[in-house]
């Protein structure tokens, strides 16, 4: 059977190893072809092709549940669950999502995108199953990186406490996170990977006798004692950490050997209580470039399959915001040994990999552990360091209590750089950086800011690090504005001070961060429509520059706010509340992301669909405040 003929994963049942291996080749071919064409996650999925086929041969996906952690590695899952023909639309507007999505397929039993959630979700399904007296299997497939996330350990702690709750955890151990894995658990797993698969020896004893009819598949007592003694002898070396936590540990087994995995999963399904099968895989398996550069091929934009190289861009691009951040932080760290950079397993994405190379002593990667990163930084700040924590806007959501409880309330001098703030594009709703403006507004003692360009980012960094309290700076994904940059000697900003970029009498545009450049473009288009707009670069969400904004608002009487963030509780809401507090009753058009999820698409497509392009914003402003408005409402109704 060819992969393209597969419409249901249960069609995998009964296929021979040779047929499954042929299908594995077809999956790899499709996976490579689509990701090379339109970009996406490459290495993770290539590493779990055989694992997916073997696991699904032992499950009935009309009844059993499988929860993939993160889901970035689940392209093989998508290909064997009816999405082969649409797979070429991966991560494109209206196409197949890059992560699992319950609304996309009945076989996507739980959505994700953020790491370390799978065991909790699968355990929840298992507990619900038992309450209903049903008997479907619940499986979590989690990577060695995601296993370092606190939630995963919380779930293991709970599951290990439930000896009668059947749950299978498949640990996909490829000895990689996005970068090299971090932590004692990763080190231990690596030691286990290198050990002999003890359990499997005893498993093969079962295999040897289970066909003997008079045993009815049961191990004779003496063999059971042999297996137990082997476990007692060997498990302390191999699976102790999981066995001590109440799991039956099996492995490590070869994650590219389909028959071995099928046998092991079948044995695991027969076990009572929680079982962890440790599968050793290779990230990027089957594509030499991805195997050789497992960091670089974690995710890729379109590339040439033959050479493994990205296609050269048509015109030179300015450095990314992340790169400017990383390079600037190196200079700051060189001048001030108190300053350290902290990442939660996102060194390459945040630009902190540059700091790691230049000043490894002032760099920390804590693994996928955002909560720990924030509170560790708080502890560092108590002892006189000036930590700079670089975490994507969306991933920092996971450490909200730490921001309030450990940093804000204690007013500790920690700088947060929220990368990927705003619309990120192909990663879709789980990764959009659309909530940080809203979620940071209420955190006590925080100074919250957003630069209009990379030069202002550099100034905000020195401002934050010098400030004796917590600061947060949001920066977007991708290239900067391409403005000239200084190498050092950046002039700090006055906290709470915005800037008037251009004046005008017809409408006041107050723009925040990455919306400042589009605001200036919008003002130019409004000029062509006969509306002269004043444009303010707010710079600060907290504290808002009232001394600048209020007089302009009173004088002009018509205000537009612009933010690349959620409107509920966002920057525009802060401006409206300020007007209200000062009894300034004037109309405000808030432009930003409405209260909705932004699906996967290119950032440009998403902005178009949200009417956030300069042309669309000019039309919206003209429609609201154009000649019609002037005829019906007198100017500023300042009280
Ligand atoms: C909470 C959270 N932090 C960070 C990330 C970014 N991220 C995506 S995949 C990944 C590495 C996952 O490693 P692993 O679980 O071992 O999967 P592999 O890529 O090796 O298959 C990270 C850090 C995330 N998705 N969620
Ligand atoms: C799966 C995951 O969460 C990361 O790989 C994420 O997709 C990286 O995003 P960027 O590509 O914006 O760095
Ligand atoms: Mg891994």
TrEMBL record:
Where is Mg(2+) annotated to bind? 144, 174
Cofactor(s) required, per the database record = Mg(2+); thiamine diphosphate
Known EC number(s)? Answer: 2.2.1.7
Positions annotated to bind thiamine diphosphate: 72, 113-115, 145-146, 174, 287, 370
Keyword tags: Isoprene biosynthesis, Magnesium, Metal-binding, Thiamine biosynthesis, Thiamine pyrophosphate, Transferase
| Broadest EC class assigned to this enzyme | transferase
Q: In which pathway does it act?
A: Metabolic intermediate biosynthesis; 1-deoxy-D-xylulose 5-phosphate biosynthesis; 1-deoxy-D-xylulose 5-phosphate from D-glyceraldehyde 3-phosphate and pyruvate: step 1/1
One Gene Ontology term of the molecular function aspect: 1-deoxy-D-xylulose-5-phosphate synthase activity
Please give the superkingdom of this protein's source.
Bacteria
Alphabetical list of CDD domains matching this protein: TPP_DXS, TPP_PYR_DXS_TK_like
- Which reaction does this chain catalyze? D-glyceraldehyde 3-phosphate + pyruvate + H(+) = 1-deoxy-D-xylulose 5-phosphate + CO2
Name all Transketolase-like pyrimidine-binding domain ranges.
Answer: 319-483
Co-factor note (free text): Binds 1 Mg(2+) ion per subunit.
Q: Indicate the family of this protein.
A: Belongs to the transketolase family. DXPS subfamily.
Any idea what job this protein has? Answer: Catalyzes the acyloin condensation reaction between C atoms 2 and 3 of pyruvate and glyceraldehyde 3-phosphate to yield 1-deoxy-D-xylulose-5-phosphate (DXP).
Q: Which HAMAP family match?
A: DXP_synth (MF_00315)
Fill in the subunit field for this protein: Homodimer.
- Full protein name: 1-deoxy-D-xylulose-5-phosphate synthase
Organism of provenance: Cyanobium gracile UHCC 0281
Q: Gene of origin? A: dxs
